[in-house]
Amino acid sequence: MIRRFTRAIRVVEIIGVAAAVAVLAILLVPRLTGGGDAAASPVLEQPDLNVAVVPAVDSAGFFVALHEGLFAAHGLNVTFIPAVSSETVINAQALDEPTDRIDISCGNYVSYLQAQQNYDRGQRSSSTSDPMVAADLEIFAEGSVMEPGTQGLYVMPGSRISTLAGLEGKTVGVNAPGNILYLLAASVLANHGLRVSGVHFAYYSLPEMAAMLKEKKIDAAVLPEPFATQAEQSMGVTEIADLDQGATVAFPVQGCAVTRQWAAAHPVTLAAFRAAFEQGQQIADANRSVVEQSMEALKAPLGVSKVTAAMMALDSYPVGPVDAVRLQRVADVMKEFLGFPAFDAKSMIGG
Questions:
Q1: Which of 76, 127, 244, 284 is the most exposed place for a label (fewest CB within 10 A)?
Q2: Exposed/middle/buried for 273, CB within 10 Å: 0-12, 13-18, 19+?
Q3: What is the CATH number of the domain that holds 314?
């Protein structure tokens, strides 16, 4: 009887040991086979990013992702750098110097295509301030497509200029020579049968453009949102033309780009950034209130008031792979109005 009892005890012990081993096996196998959480998430090559972005509603998807913590949720620490000069930003990306490091930029397609075409012709930038902009770029995400009211030509209240025809011989302010705002203005002028060469263009940054208009250094200004709404509220400026018309109706304005060298060296980081950015785009395209909150939250002097946020027009914010047909449209309009050579925009798409 005692032996049977002893055997029973041993059987129970053996079963207990076997069960314990089974539990340990279940716990350890994922780690030994690489199926654990640590192995499921590839290591980010560079979690700290300097991202240069135009401080306008074209960048709403980025600002939403930043404000809502979407980049942080993907393990990224993103430092927002206001992009007031496409030339400086793109050259900084190309040169990749530690003191002026820009990892990713979101800006106008026109400048990206110009930089790539210069690079393809063998030209190179010598510094961030070099007027020669050249870079080997990969456009990995779309940023914005123009909607009515988001880009326009404005004059001061009481101006004698009330139509586009009145711009003949006058000075129009844009933020850079031959960039997206210049292209949009040139397209609208041509669409109304006016000579682009009959208008003088002067160049000022967007934050100072309204002041230049008020000081009469320019007769009209091309203003995107939110700068247009801010100028309407503070100075009473009047729109004489919405640029969402003719050859540039529903025009693709902005995208995000990296150098091909950076993309090759940081595939995991780029994928994480793109995933967070796409989430921001989806929210921006569907939820205006979040866009308003995100734009209001920007640090001074870039943040907008609640009134401005509520009144400013918004673009549409695409998601998914970069649309090759849409991007080619930029190159085609550049050829028509800027004398840009024939260019296969699809060659720049990556991501």
A1: 127
A2: buried
A3: 3.40.190.10
Q: Is residue 140 part of a domain?
A: yes
| Amino acid type, 59 | S
DSSP state of 226: T
My answer on whether 141 and 267 are in the same domain is yes
For the chain, the straight-line distance linking the first and the last C-alpha, in angstroms and rounded, comes to 75
Helix (H, G, I), strand (E, B) or coil at 248: helix
Question: Where does 192-338 have alpha helices with state H?
Answer: 206-214, 227-235, 260-265, 267-286, 288-296, 306-311, 324-338
Nearest to 52 by CA among 107, 131, 125, 98: 107
pTM: 0.86
Q: Is the same domain home to 205 and 336?
A: no
State residue 17's pLDDT score.
35
User: What is the span of the domain harbouring residue 136?
Assistant: 48-147+251-348
The structure tokens listed for 179 are 């960039």
* Residue 24 structure tokens: 């340990």
Amino acid making up residue 267: P
* Residues present in the chain in total: 351
Rg (CA), the chain: 27
Look at the block and give the residue holding tokens 């196998």. 29
pLDDT tens by residue, 230-239: 999 999 999 9
Question: Is there a single domain that holds both residue 61 and residue 140?
Answer: yes
Of the candidates 228, 248, 268, which is a domain's last residue? 248
| Cα separation values, 140 from 216, 273, 323, Å | 40, 10, 10
Q: Taking the C-alpha atoms of 259, 261, 262 and 266 in order, what is their torsion angle to the nearest 10 degrees?
A: 140
Residue 296 located in a structural domain: yes
Lookup: tokens for 267? 């595939």
Confidence band of 40 (pLDDT split at 50, 70, 90): low
Model pLDDT for residues 260-284, shown as the tens digit of each residue:
999 999 999 999 999 999 999 999 9
For the chain, what is the domain count? 2
